[in-house]
Amino acid sequence: MPETSIAPPSAPATRPAKPVSEALLNEKWDRCLSSLLIRSSLGLSFGVVFSVLLFKRRAWPAWVGLGFGAGRAYEECNGSFLRTGREGVRIQRP
């Protein structure tokens, strides 16, 4: 029998781990999107409830509730992106 040399399968190429800053940024974006979804849904549901109970089934309370929820989520996300790692430091905008 002829001798054939079969090379062992090479290990799969390992991808370098994401940098810490990219992982933190991804975590902040995930938190922002989930907060936007939850707060907007809650605002919309409160708007629908108030619309049915108090405002004779008008549409504007639902839209206002949705806007308040989305606005609150936006402010929270904006604050998380502008915040530094140190507590007690306030960032002033120019």
Automatic annotation (TrEMBL):
The record describes its membrane topology as: Single-pass membrane protein
Which residues span the membrane? Answer: 36-55
* GO CC term, one of those recorded: MICOS complex
Localization, per the record, is:
Mitochondrion inner membrane
Sorted keywords for this record are: Membrane, Mitochondrion, Mitochondrion inner membrane, Transmembrane, Transmembrane helix
Pfam families documented for this protein: DUF543
User: InterPro entries given for it?
Assistant: Mic10
Family, according to the entry, reads as follows:
Belongs to the MICOS complex subunit Mic10 family.
What is its quaternary makeup?
Answer: Component of the mitochondrial contact site and cristae organizing system (MICOS) complex.
Give the protein's biological function: Component of the MICOS complex, a large protein complex of the mitochondrial inner membrane that plays crucial roles in the maintenance of crista junctions, inner membrane architecture, and formation of contact sites to the outer membrane.
By what name is this protein known? Answer: MICOS complex subunit MIC10
Please report the organism this UniProt entry assigns to the protein: Hyaloscypha variabilis (strain UAMH 11265 / GT02V1 / F)
**Species lineage, top-down?**
Eukaryota, Fungi, Dikarya, Ascomycota, Pezizomycotina
